[in-house]
Amino acid sequence: MDNIVLHVADVHKSFGGLKALSDVDLQVKEGTTHAIIGPNGAGKSTLLNVCIGRIAPDTGAVVFDGEVITGKHPHEINQMGVVRVFQTPEIFPELTLLQNVMIPAFARRDGSFRLNAMQMVSSQHAIREEAEHWLEDVGLKEQKLVTAASLSRGDKRRLELAMGLIQHPRLLLLDEPTAGMSRHDTNSTIDLLKKFKERGMTKVIIEHDMHVVFSLADRITVLAQGQIIADGTPDEVRRSVKVQEAYLGGSH
Ligand SMILES: Nc1ncnc2c1ncn2[C@@H]1O[C@H](COP(=O)(O)OP(=O)(O)OP(=O)(O)O)[C@@H](O)[C@H]1O
User: Fold this and answer.
1) Handedness of CA 138, 204, 20, 211 (dihedral sign)
2) CB of 40 sitting under 6 A from ligand 1
3) What is the reported pLDDT for 112?
4) Which residue range or ranges hold the ABC transporter domain (predicted)?
5) What is the 3-state secondary structure of 61-108?
6) What does the pLDDT read at residue 86?
7) Which residue's CA is the closest to the ligand 1 atom numbered 24?
8) What gap in Å lies between CA 98 and CA 217, rounded to an integer?
9) Which of 241, 234, 227, 232 is nearest to 38 (CA)?
């Protein structure tokens, strides 16, 4: 049977009188790329924030690898293996690429700063090698010693991906990974994400660009006004009349 990595179980969330998420229930299978799409204001970001513990649902729960994570702190959920790559890269612009990628690896290992000096030196060496490996993986090894501020927008997002990868995600959540990118950068990001998919990584991706969605997704959940209006394979979603109606007249 397919292993369910993430189960959003009957989640409701209102902001005042506005129902941002109603009755949202979806499952993400291990090794799949699951896209969440929907018109502006559909509730996609709210859903992502519920999954990472930044927003508490009013009712319902999020189950990760069989464990209820609702109510846990974002850093606890992160340490369990849920890694989010943000729409606006959260990088350290004054530091080099190498330093940027090393930071989450140190943060991952609770107590690392209490290590004695000898251990510190050897672990630094190992982490540096691993950081170089992930920089190479995203195509940024040549620039490892330049400061992050000097990177193009597309490369900043690649850097953030490397910062995610060094955390060995069990589930990678990508918030509009190609937003604002040129077609060339978008296509190389698609290729990169396809490579992760071949390795069996489980991903949830929020994306407006349908070219990206249909290039990558095994399954698509469509939200509109806080409700799931379709959930299925790309072909099923493409054929859904409800989905076509939701997008009719919209900007997508
Ligand atoms: N903190 C908040 N307080 C009040 N209303 C909010 C809050 N966050 C989101 N909303 C509202 O909830 C609804 C869903 O917003 P959300 O950002 O989740 O949608 P989205 O699908 O991610 O939209 P977009 O594609 O435009 O980013 C919107 O009507 C939004 O205005």
Assistant:
1) positive
2) yes
3) 46
4) 6-250
5) EEEECCEECCCCCHHHHHHCCEEEECCCCCCCCCCEHHHHHHHHHHHH
6) 75
7) 40
8) 31
9) 227
User: With 70 as the cut, is the pLDDT of residue 29 above it?
Assistant: yes
Q: What Å distances lie between residue 108 and 76, 103, 117, 130, 165, CA to CA?
A: 10, 9, 19, 13, 12
Residue range 63-87, pLDDT digits in tens: 999 999 999 999 899 999 999 987 6
User: How far apart are the CA of 244 and the centre of ligand 1, in A?
Assistant: 21
Average pLDDT over residues 229-251: 84
Give the residue extent of every domain in the chain.
1-81+170-252, 93-168
Query: Using the 8-state DSSP alphabet, how is residue 240 labeled?
Result: -
Q: What is the DSSP string of 167-228?
A: T--SEEEEESTTTT--HHHHHHHHHHHHHHHHTT--EEEE-S-HHHHHHH-SEEEEEETTEE
Query: What does the pLDDT average to over 30-58?
Result: 96
Least confident of 17-26, 55-64, 114-123, 217-226: 114-123
Q: Which of 12, 18, 84 for mutating ligand 1's site (highest number of atoms within 8 Å of CB)?
A: 18
Nearest residue CA, atom 4 of ligand 1?
15
ipTM comes to 0.96
Two tokens at 135?
Answer: 């920089």
pLDDT confidence band for 108 (50 / 70 / 90): low
State the distance from the centre of ligand 1 to the C-alpha of 57, rounded, in angstroms: 14
